[in-house]
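[Meeting: bench + compute handoff]

Bench side (C.D.) handed over the final construct sequence. Compute side (W.E.) agreed to return the predicted structure before the next meeting so the bench team could plan truncations. Sequence as handed over:
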Amino acid sequence: MGEALWVGGPSQAESEAHGDAASVPARMHGAPVAAPSAPLAKRGVAGSAVPASSPGSAASLALVPDDAAEPETSGLWVVTAPVPVVTSARMSSGHDAIAPVSTAFARTADAAAAPRGRGALWLRPAAGVLDRGVASMGSVSRLAVRAFQGARVAAGDPRLTGVLRAAPSVVSFMARSRTRSAAAPLDDTVVPVRPTPGLALQAYLDELLIAVLRHPGLLPKDADCAAAAEDLGRMRALFATNGWLEHPEGYHRDPPPPDDVDSHFEHRAGMPYDHVTFSSGWSPEPFEPGRDRWMRHVANQTVHTWVAHVPERHRRTWLVCAHGLGMGNNPSVDLRAFRAAQLVRRGVNVAVPVLPLHGPRASGRVRGEDLMTIDMVDSLHGVAQAVWDLRRVIAWLRSTYGAEQIGVIGYSLGGLVASLTAALEDDLACVIAGIPVVDLPHLFRRHSPPDIARLANAHGVLGPAADEVHRVVSPLAMECKVPFDRRFIFAGLADRMSTFGHARRLWTHWGRPSFASYAGGHVGFYWSADVKRFVDGALARSYATTTVA
């Protein structure tokens, strides 16, 4: 037999204190247990079962008779509560073997500190024929436990459930699209959809992206919904008192041009631009719920803007761009998303302000995380500040460069910001709302996992109160100030994020201006030739002296 364990028997006092073998269960860790065999018992070996090494290991133990030499104790495991059991298995030496069982023990590296004589247990790892078998059983057991725990976590992960629901959702969407298309001859607001495999694939990719964005760590708890409902109720009462529910434009103040502008040239990934910063200057009213929470986002109080200039200091024509959720972190990506290089070559200067709580203004783990929370007061503040910042950029362009033609364009969440700006700002050259969001409460209701939706409904967080309060940041509640022939909207037929329905609602509210659709999902517009032609045509019609065509 290999190196064994020294197992000293308990004293009579310890036996009385800890009880006898009858108190031990019949099985431990799957191994049968029994009292020591008669030959060993006659020799005074108590047969206390203890782990052979560190906690959680699966090594076997062997009994050593009393008359064996006492081993070195330094650095060994010293068991403080011996358990008198042995297994019926036999070691190669003829002694009974002890299977690993759980017991209380402590580690000592000091030989003098270790108890000695009968009643104490000195342990040393033993190599025996049971080692491999017990270790294998332990490994399989641990693997099974981990697999079970992993399955439980995965089953509650909204990302996994979202992925599993993606295909059925696309099938349902394609079926509804076919039904709606059949009604197109009778309803001129319906755009016929041709259900192709390519369209289904883009819709499926959107559904997968939505699923991935449902991080379980960001989902609200019951306490979050309760606090959000309280904020919402107080905000609704405040807005009603101030008349902002009936006249939502009254909530917004006119921003002055910034007086602390700083600008420096940068060049990233082949894209030259100026990085312009200034103080936002926006804050919720002192009496608004959520004000202190919002103002704790210190980095958010500085506006960052990427500016691409036309050469030779031609600064009369501008396009101010509002990006989508999650962007704002990479100037090169943001400028390319609006085709800044091509526009600059055609005589249009481009400015892309970073939206609140995005990019260098973010304070959460995910870009835009603190903007899109279950507390609808936060999302209201975020959109209101985004509109203020965009309008402040416009004021800066007019005061600094004498800009005469300024248009606004926005994608997704930026489409909401651009549409609101068009309802508040005078003398805009055009407004282009791409794949726009126009109703944040509806968007939250649509994309909330079922259990979160039930929780929110129980507290009334996403109900009528949210709709009423969000009128102050809804372009559907205000009249567009841009002339009719310079309003433009485009949307994706397979958009599963902001959805085609949002664009359609804005289109009807604006009196059915120029509208373009493309056969794709939420981000498919970037590769759409139809969208490129539509935007170029919109700018050519809106700007009097440019080469855009």
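W.E. noted at the follow-up: The CA atoms of residues 335 and 352 lie 7 Å apart. C.D. will use this when planning the next construct.
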